[in-house]
Amino acid sequence: MADVLAENLSDKSVVGADGTEIGPLYNITMDLRTGSLGDLLVEPNDEYSVSSGGYSVDENGLLHVPVSQVQAVKDYIVVGQ
Fold this sequence. Notes:
Elements: E1 13-16, E2 21-30, E3 37-42, H1 50-53, E4 56-57, E5 63-66, E6 70-73, E7 76-79
Parallel strand pairs: 1-7
Antiparallel strand pairs: 1-2, 2-3, 3-5, 4-5, 6-7
């Protein structure tokens, strides 16, 4: 995958590989020691079933989608489920 600047990801919608809209990207976690990216933090849409997605949910209601599941970044961020 080509390099993508973080500023270009702000508020992009995250969708599943099957086209299911998950919600907008809220933030991205990173290991400060290594610089490796960890999880996409996604605000789930009201229509998205958090329990069926298989992603962990934090105390703020944000989904933690591993960066390793990102398949494509264009108009949307496409993740495998």
